[in-house]
UniProtKB/TrEMBL annotation:
Its EC number is 3.2.1.21. Residues 398-599 form the Glycoside hydrolase family 3 C-terminal domain. This is beta-glucosidase. InterPro entries: Cellulose_Degrad_GH3, GH, Glyco_hydro_3_AS, Glyco_hydro_3_C, Glyco_hydro_3_C_sf, Glyco_hydro_3_N, Glyco_hydro_3_N_sf. SUPFAM superfamilies: (Trans)glycosidases, Beta-D-glucan exohydrolase, C-terminal domain. Belongs to the glycosyl hydrolase 3 family. Coiled coil: none annotated. GO terms for biological process: glucan catabolic process. It comes from Amycolatopsis keratiniphila.
Length: 601
């Protein structure tokens, strides 16, 4: 049938074609018209299925379709047998094929935590974690990283990225400090540019656009003593001043989803906070996208293992739209259906959730393009992306001390490199790398910091490496000790008892110092470290944070190929005992928020 044409001015303007088939399948119809039409055709089972997200390891494609699941996810480290772009695309497309083969053909949406590149997949470009990107103070760079990440994600299949974390980490003992851009809301506000990189100016506007997630709403970084999933015992005024503004910015940027925090606010789990989710996020801030729970998070509402019908009712009625119930989808579906049929969850609430979920799927273009655009795989781990990552590493380095020992001479130098983090790409990548917790060792392709020091050495320069510093003597002109933390994620990174250098690092630095050679210390860590006691013995100090796969970017700064511009977005405490210490709190930090040196040319 010819598309209807209207005479408008001198031109004929095509209007929504009266294409055959249901309105919701017409890409020229408005999103709201498509949502309304589809909603009318959906049963209660269809609608409850759309609100349910399961882990890929828990359901086959056919089981997912039979449950009418709206979404699948890969939890950290949940990868297909072939952890390659093709292996991922085949896996994601197999769920999609089953979904679009159902009577209504509603596509599923697949979510991953690509929080510093597409970090689940071997060979992806691994960018610095947010703590370093915050120090780079370059929102445009972060937007480009978002775009690069989206291309690498979309080319492997997933259409949803549970990123960026817009947490404002207020206590460095928190295991997720490195997922924060900084201790001030302005850091997360500025770097919410990641959303525009991931989604585009408008969701679905171009190939590779993926649904972004502002997380974790709200106050995850403000818990007492930095306890992960703890209680944010601040006033509503402080919550609105410190933790809410990044979500306002994310909404202004059109973020399509918001993830609720595990933490509590004033003793009540966020997943049961109707006032903050429905009244504040959805009504006051006018968030139109979908709200998703965190992983099994509704289980925690009553403080007991597993979830109950009451916890399902409380969290749905609080305003959460989609539920990450990785291994318990059938149970969730059964409980919610019973709650609706008993009249304890309204059909209007179910419809509100579905409108939000379906609108994102329509905006993403999933109904028109349900399968992976494999042409994007040419960007995966590309040279261009790795160069972008290396630039981000350069800009994230913060020079904290320099007694004239930096920059290192590239020629006619004799450099000794030591430390457990000098030649360990797993340690420099940190958590959320291939697995949830990350791991030490040569686990991903890229360059270590030592690789960079070696490749940057010029004529007449030798570079010697020994992890413990064995072999150092007075014939060396300078020593570089790359020390710090080994990978962790979430609560496993909580450090309630302090965060100083470990015994190995202290021994390595002492050995280097005993030779009389000047020592540059480079910290690879997910937080500022408690180093004040050792600082007088450091001739130079650089915070490298968690640089990711392109460690050579650290060497670019050590050699002065890039004059450091990084500035602290976390007050560096005089000791762990000083925590929390934040800009404007009147406490005197060892190095204040905004501190960072440059080389005098
Ligand atoms: C995790 C994290 C969240 C992540 C989700 C899915 O527990 O809290 O940031 O997006 O589960 O992996």
């Amino acid at each position: 049938m010819l598309a209807g044409l209207l005479l408008a001015g001198s031109a004929l303007t095509p209007v929504a074609s009266a294409a055959p088939g249901p309105l919701y399948k017409n890409p020229h119809a408005s999103t709201s018209a498509r949502v309304n039409d589809l909603l009318k055709r959906m049963s209660l089972d269809d609608k409850i299925g759309q609100m349910t997200q399961a882990e890929r390891g828990a359901v086959t494609p056919d089981q997912a379709a039979a449950l009418k699941l709206g979404s699948l996810l890969s939890g950290g480290g949940s990868v297909p047998a072939s952890n390659t772009p093709t292996g991922w695309a085949d896996m994601v497309d197999s769920y999609q094929k089953a979904a679009v083969s159902t009577p209504l053909g509603i596509p599923t949406i697949y979510g991953v935590d690509a929080v510093h590149g597409h970090n689940n997949v071997y060979g992806a470009t691994i960018f610095p974690h947010n703590i370093g990107l915050g120090a780079a103070n370059n929102p445009r760079l972060v937007e480009k990283i978002g775009r690069a990440t989206a291309l690498e994600v979309a080319g492997t299949g997933p259409q949803w990225d549970f990123s960026p974390c817009l947490c404002v980490a207020r206590d460095d003992r928190w295991g997720r400090t490195y997922e924060s851009f900084g201790e001030s809301p302005r850091d997360a506000i500025a770097n919410a540019s990641a959303i525009t990189g991931l989604q585009g100016r408008r969701l679905g506007e171009k190939p590779g656009s993926v649904l972004a997630t502002a997380k974790h709403y709200v106050g995850d970084g403000g818990t007492t003593n930095g306890v992960d999933q703890g209680d944010t015992e601040v006033s509503e005024r402080e919550l609105r001043q410190i933790h809410l503004p990044p979500f306002r910015e994310a909404i202004d940027r059109g973020v399509g989803s918001v993830m609720i925090s595990f933490s509590s606010f004033q003793g009540v789990r966020m997943h049961a906070q109707k006032y903050l989710i429905t009244d504040v996020l959805k009504k006051e801030l006018r968030f139109r996208g979908l709200v998703i729970s965190d992983y099994n998070a509704i289980d925690q509402i009553d403080g007991k293992e597993g979830f109950t019908p009451e916890e399902v009712r409380l969290s749905v009625n609080a305003g959460i739209d989609m539920f990450m119930v990785p291994w318990d989808a059938p149970q969730f579906i059964a409980y919610l259906k019973a709650e609706v049929e008993a009249g304890r969850v309204s059909r209007e609430r179910i419809d509100d959730a579905n409108r939000r979920i379906l609108a994102e799927k329509f905006e993403l273009g999933l109904f028109e393009h349900p399968y992976t655009d494999r042409s994007l795989q040419k960007t995966f781990g590309s040279k261009e992306h790795r160069e972008l990552a290396r630039q981000a590493v350069r800009e994230s380095q913060v020079l904290l001390k320099n007694d004239g020992v930096l920059p290192l001479a590239k020629t006619n130098n004799k450099i000794f490199v030591a430390g457990k983090n000098a030649n360990d790409i797993g340690n420099q990548a940190g958590g959320w790398t291939l697995t949830w917790q990350g791991q030490s060792g040569p686990v991903i392709p890229g360059t270590t910091i030592l690789d960079g020091i070696k490749s940057g050495a010029g004529k007449g320069t030798t570079v010697t490496y020994d992890r413990a510093g064995d072999g150092i003597d007075g014939s060396y002109q300078v020593a570089v000790a790359v020390v710090g933390e080994t990978p962790y994620a979430e609560g496993q990174g909580d450090r309630p008892n302090g965060f100083g250098l470990d015994a190995e690092d202290l021994a390595t630095i002492a050995k280097l110092k005993s030779s009389g050679v000047p020592v540059v210390v480079v910290t690879v860590s997910g937080r500022p470290l408690d180093i004040a006691a050792q600082l007088p013995r450091f001739d130079g100090l650089v915070a490298a944070w968690l640089p990711g796969s392109e460690g050579a970017g650290v060497a670019d700064v050590l050699y002065g190929d890039y004059n450091p511009t990084g500035k602290l977005t976390f007050s560096w405490p005089v000791s762990a005992a000083q925590e929390p210490v934040n800009v404007g709190d009147g406490k005197k930090a060892l190095y204040p928020y905004g501190y960072g040196l440059r080389y005098r040319r």
